Amino acid sequence: MVDRENLNRLRWRCTRRAMLEMDLLLGEFLDRIFPMLEPEQADAFVTLADMEDLELWPLINGSRQCSDAVQAEVVALLRNVRVK
């Protein structure tokens, strides 16, 4: 479980991106899906959130595949997020 301070830092990283699409997608994921993730999936999401948009976007849009199986699970969940 992520403590409040680390969750706030993660929220900042998720919603202050170079790409508006990433702001919306990662912010929505953090609010709706992140609380339900298994600990290893949560760690994988944090790693993904630390990536630059130009590195992460190809994973999300499917033009590049994840080499890490747990990150691939999280990316699959990200692809299914519908932004409100």
Outline the secondary-structure elements.
Layout: H1 4-15, H2 20-32, H3 39-49, H4 53-61, H5 69-79
Helix pairs in contact: 3-5
Give the gist of this structure.
The chain has 84 residues and is mostly helical.
Q: Can you offer a commentary on this structure?
A:
- The structure is a single chain.
- With 84 residues, the protein is an all-alpha fold.
- It is built from 5 helices and no strands.
- Helix 3 crosses helix 5 (69-79).
- It has helices spanning 4-15, 20-32, 39-49, 53-61, 69-79.
- The protein has one domain: DNA polymerase, domain 1 (Orthogonal Bundle).
- Helix content is 67%, strand content 0%.
Task: Using brief descriptors, characterize the structure shown.
84 residues, globular, 5 helices, mainly alpha, DNA polymerase, domain 1
Shape: globular
Mean pLDDT: 94
Determine the strand fraction and express it as a percent band. under 5%
- The unreliable regions are none
> What do we call the CATH topology?
DNA polymerase, domain 1
> What portion of residues is helical?
55-70%
Specify the number of helices. 5
Number of strands: 0
Radius of gyration: 12 Å
Distance between the termini: 26 Å
CATH class: Mainly Alpha
H and E order:
HHHHH
Q: Which structural category do the helix and sheet elements fall into?
A: mainly alpha
Largest sheet: none
CATH superfamily: Flavinator of succinate dehydrogenase
